[in-house]
UniProtKB/TrEMBL annotation, chains A, B, C, D:
Belongs to the DapA family. This is Dihydrodipicolinate synthase family protein. Pyruvate binds at M216. The lineage of its organism: Bacteria, Pseudomonadati, Pseudomonadota, Alphaproteobacteria, Hyphomicrobiales. Keywords: Lyase. One of its GO terms (cellular component) is cytosol. GO terms for molecular function: 4-hydroxy-tetrahydrodipicolinate synthase activity. The keyword Zinc does not apply. It comes from the Bacteria.
Length: 304, 304, 304, 304
């Protein structure tokens, strides 16, 4: 099952669960996969920035990917982040996870890229590295990568690389970018690819209204993301915003850079989805005051 | 009336109103000042990043500052942003606005600063430039300045410069930073200064709970900021969060980098507070889709 | 006398001389102008990055520019750096110095620019600010500005703005960029503008061989720059490199970021060209060890 | 043979030789090792930034390291760069190369680090990852890493980590930093570690005079680096500078960012030290004009 341009719904960005002493936790991994599928995920994405991918050794990454793919067992597509400092590492990981049954890979640009041509060339080289038959996702996340891609650049990458099937959109601000990209494909100027949005879902209802096909992001209550996507698709705008706004205080708290992942893991632990909220170093620790904030936010969400 | 370490409440960050053809708009300036005071502002801050200060010529900045100070006429303190590429410009503007009746000045660090000592030295030089008797505010806004100040560095600046009376806190994440700074002054390790928080108010109720004295930020409904600060001070936690959460969807929309100011000016215009939502170049223009989003958000706030 | 696309030779980047107590030094200014003209300068450039322009107040900048222009008295063109945080400041300074007799202005892009279109738009807005009849120079200096312009972007700026007459080239590496730009104008794909090179002259003989028309840079022995440019133009390659290589140890020492200007001012002082090597804050101070290094380098140059 | 604080001389930074089709080239690797030892290297450093380390897959890195260590066969110490995006990768590589006989490892800080405490903590975590008994080298190279370490920070790292035995110094400007660090150890404020300097050798004679113990850098004629170090140690200042200055035109050409490694590999190929000057993507290609420049520079060096 390979990823295609018609992918939609909610691809949940999975954290990598660790035990208290920092080893990858296989039991929590399985439990998390089942919880996310039960929440309505139409896909899973692993080894992304919020999956602490750079903190894993090469063999750990591969073992984790294989386990997730095996547990999912074809129920939904699994996308694997293969961003790497060099193409040799990207190529090796990509080949192995595709061999293990991944649906596609996701590639974020390295932070040194500046000009339009540098970005376009980088994706051409990346496609050469992973092979032209591997479906891939562009990750457009300037807050973290420091690489700014105009719609024009994204369209060039789509045009020049038939294996590009999706944009993980998390530019900020980014709503007009969705509008521009969708207009370009509606006008026949460009091939239409799937657009799933990120940024912890912070703008999800608006993004859907601009033409996104769904979300590819993490949030400790992924059923909310699923609910919002479905409500918007059903034309229930007010209900979608009502549902979303009820969660927004926690979404906002979870989108704090660096700290956000610790928040998310804490909530997932409290919800019984993973066993420990351990992050590998370097990573923040939650202060007692922060824990109290999160407890307050969870209580307000769950009460309503 | 000079700014002191006991400043509290809501210091509204004022945009600079322009006419449709881009000149500073004196009529809107007066109207805006009165609206913000009526909303409960305990102070005003002008010529900050969100005041488009770098887009004004030197004489325009001074004229605008003088007008605001004259209109306020001593009802509340006025703080003037004097961040500049060099100390000669900072010194000149500071001297002139203090002469015109400003309560103090605000200084953001230039983006080239990296090490702890560079940051501390910079503020020492800045104090030399503005004079040791001018109360000043440290602006700690890494998302925009790219300068990261640890609590330790902030405490060193406070310790070495008696004229430092306030921290405009907008680190992100920043809640634990407030806790750390407040603990340091509670423990007698450091002089207590006022902490007013920024970031468009995105974390305001939590920031108050961590020990902030109020907010120094902009938002198109500043009465909400005032309400939240007062409710928290009155111990009404739930009511504070309820009020805040009702506005959070728009707060979130307004905190989009670059675009946010255009959103804010549009709402201020629709509320009759300024005549035009013009931004000077370089600045974004609102798309029709974005205008529709904002209208939707305003309607939901005002209906509730 | 307005700057044109046929400008050539050596436009010496002038430092701004200060007295020991940090005021602009008019006597040294005149003396420096005469020394640079005597050294063979075919133009002067003031208020650039190495002129400590951001450290001057608006009135100081203008007074300094007027004095230099008056002293030069039409003997050579004077270019004035008008890079500014905003277009209002750029417009005001540009109008005043052109009125005072400047030949053109120089504009470096602000460091926030990332994409090709952002850079091209910025120069369009800048031309709107200074007026379409004011000849201007693009400063392409990524090491300092953090803005990377491809040859394609530079050619678009040249094409869209007839008042663009010169590129101050200081990309690094940058030799192939000159080759590409010159090929584009030779092939009739683009209007030919003057290319003067910067970077403290570090690659001057090779830059001339690639098609530069000369240099626009500073070095404490500007007669060397003049000599190299003339020797290359006269076809005396070996002599040009021999002359250059004799100075290279000091050129290399002067191109150290930040420190370099202090080195240059020290040598200019020792050569009797300016009275003091004072830099305004923030700026480095030369250690005794560094002074000894420079003395050693000067001795080796002057002995040979 | 473990690396100690008394290491001195020239540790040549080795490129990773590739065949024309981009595979690691074992024959060239052996030949290069022998050539560098014959040139007088007192150590070798592999898998650094100029060794294209991030472009190698994990197994390639390890195989290359093992081969170099085996070829050297204990004649000199071999240092291996283990900088990695995460500690798991760093730990794995470090353990394996130390097991294979490396003398120590080198660690550059990741570019996200800003504050003094972040940098110090990072090295504490890194030591935890590699183990407290593995001698390590701090790489201080802000031009590439964007991390600025004050002397104070370096001294804290040395103080808190007994396994820190060397600083690879390539700050720029950096001469006064050597003076400050050496004064601190002379004054008994800090443990004395080895300081070897980098930056392609651009300031080598001055660095030696400030107290460096030698160089750890690459240059296509490493015998020049050895010669300069030995002449300075022998008190022959003039001869050292004469030798250095003869090579400076090429050193300068080789220190161009990104392009420099392609230049170095070309010269090594022409000198018969490696079979191909291939770089892995992303990497620059030499234009015919650049090749002609290098040929000219080589001719001038070899003639003299």
């Amino acid at each position: 099952m390979l990823l295609t341009s018609s992918a939609a719904g909610v691809y949940v960005i999975c954290p990598t669960p660790f035990t208290i002493d920092g080893r990858v936790d296989p039991a929590s991994t399985d439990q998390m996969v089942e919880a996310f599928l039960k929440a309505g995920a139409t896909g899973l994405t692993i080894l992304g920035i919020m999956g602490e991918a750079p903190k894993l050794a090469a063999d750990e990454s591969l073992a984790f990917a294989k386990q997730v793919i095996a547990t999912v067992a074809g129920r939904v597509p699994v996308i694997v982040g293969v961003s790497a400092a060099g193409f040799a590492g990207m190529s090796a990981l990509s080949r192995k996870v595709m061999g293990a049954g991944a649906a596609g890979v996701m590639i974020a640009p390295p932070s040194a890229l500046r000009t339009d041509d540098q970005i376009v060339s980088y994706y051409a080289d990346a496609v050469e590295a992973i092979g032209p038959d591997v479906p891939f996702v562009i990750q457009d996340y300037p807050l973290v990568t420091n690489v700014v891609m105009t719609p024009k650049v994204i369209l060039r990458i789509i045009e020049e690389n038939p294996s590009c099937v999706m944009l993980k959109h998390e530019d900020w601000p980014g709503l007009d970018k969705i509008t521009t990209l969708r207009r370009a494909s509606a006008d026949g100027q460009a091939r239409r690819v799937s657009i799933l949005t990120g940024n912890g879902g912070l703008f999800l209802p608006f993004e859907m209204e601009r033409g996104a096909d769904g979300a590819m992001t993490g949030y400790a209550y992924p059923e909310m993301l699923v609910g919002v996507v479905n409500l918007i698709k059903a034309g229930k705008r007010k209900e979608a915003h009502d549902l979303f706004d009820r969660h927004l205080p926690l979404v906002r708290y979870e989108t704090q850079p660096n700290l956000g992942l610790a928040v998310r893991k804490y909530v997932l632990k409290r919800r019984g989805i993973i066993a420990s909220d351990t992050l590998r170093k370097p990573g923040p620790k939650l202060s007692p005051e922060t824990v109290a904030d999160i407890d307050w936010l969870m209580e307000r969400i769950e009460r309503s």
